[in-house]
Amino acid sequence: MNVQEYAVIDMGSNSIRLMIGVKADDAKPWRFTPKDVIMTRLGEGVDKGGALSAESMERTLEALATWRSRLLYVPVCVVATSAVRDASNGNAFLAEVRARFGWHCRIITGSEEALLGFYGATANMDPKACILTLDIGSGSTEVAVGTRNNVHWSHSYDMGAVRLKERWETELQSFEKAVAHCNETWVPMDVKPTHIVGIGGTITTAAAMVQKLNVYDPQKINNYSLALKDVIELIPRLSALSQEERLAIRGLPPQRRDIIIPGLLILWSFMSHYKYMNIIVSDCDLMEGVFYRHAFHDAAWRNGPNTK
């Protein structure tokens, strides 16, 4: 039996994530390991300063090093998103990652990010349904609309939870101004979806908080219907608490407590602007999309699959 094994690392603005996929043969579906997540806040300061800071790069390199031994014999593709693609020193940072670990690295465009997130989230949905995916990241927000195998429209916005937090602290300084800023950003869509799916840390965390999960459980996140009214209710509840007090909120990871409100404001704005009262939550996202669309093919070509 020819078993193929690959690893994908998603290098985001707030966290890096690792997922390994195993495929017994071309006729069998991918089997994935649980996603390993380390918060490094790589995108901190990129919106204002235009470059990755020395501190955030070192935090990220140290975190990547913890996976080195685990990935010794597995072809690895590092997929870098908003923070790295927008930073003036993003390519230099990826060159350092290649030099230290020998991994293949690529920066994906906002359009690619939207498409990969869409294909990851919709793989098991009705192939005839017209689906919209909303991916609120830390550095950017991606929207895609289409059927399971064909995206008809997509857009990437330079607006994410970390970016909005930094703008809020310097210029927006109120919920009303932050939401107004978001409302001015959305562009018209020329297609009407029948299903709305939300992916990314802000939305999965919101679903976990509404359900008051003590431990994050993908089975309870996937297909959860998150109501706009619950999103709106979370914002004043969280804003009334200090950072320390938010540690007691079930479903809220400690490393996300300072960016959850900006992320929820983006979600509130989007759902209100397009008049969506509910959004279906998915734990599947860009990482699964990389496997389903074989977006690591260049790394596989270089290294070849790990066969057992």
From TrEMBL:
It comes from the Bacteria. Belongs to the GppA/Ppx family. Residues 40-294 form the Ppx/GppA phosphatase N-terminal domain. One of its GO terms (molecular function) is pyrophosphatase activity. This is Phosphatase. Pfam families: Ppx-GppA. It comes from Megasphaera hutchinsoni. InterPro entries: ATPase_NBD (IPR043129), GppA/Ppx_hydrolase (IPR050273), Ppx_GppA_N (IPR003695). PANTHER family: EXOPOLYPHOSPHATASE, RETROGRADE REGULATION PROTEIN 2.
